[in-house]
Amino acid sequence: MALLYYLLLIPLLIFIITSLFQYLWNITMPDTFSLNPITFWQSFRLLLMALILFNGFKYLSGLLGLLSMLHL
Predict the structure, then answer these.
(1) Are 25 and 37 within 8 A, CB to CB?
(2) pTM of the model
(3) Fewer Cβ neighbours under 10 Å: the N or C end of the chain?
(4) What is the predicted pLDDT for the residue at 63?
């Protein structure tokens, strides 16, 4: 049951965070810096790069640890 909960919750959280980032980018950056609006997948890649650059692989290793605890 917990596995199903995490399998549904994690993609939903990723979708919500990425959509929020895309929305905030598209209402701020084009007017402020004359940049183009971005798509959902561009915002996902930007968030992934920021996660790797600013946090290293801490969160990714934490996710792998979580998966190993759930015996996946």
Answers:
(1) yes
(2) 0.73
(3) N
(4) 60
Residue 20 to residues 37, 64, 65: CA-CA distances in angstroms? 13, 25, 27
Domain ranges of the chain: 2-69
Residue 1 confidence (pLDDT):
76
Q: What is the pLDDT of residues 17-70, one digit of tens each?
A: 999 999 999 999 999 999 999 999 999 999 999 988 887 666 556 666 666 666
CB within 8 A of 44, min separation 6: which ones?
Answer: 14, 18
- Integer Cα distance of 45 and 68 in angstroms: 25
Task: Report which DSSP code applies to 71.
Answer: T
Selection from 9, 10, 11, 2 nearest residue 70 by Cα: 2
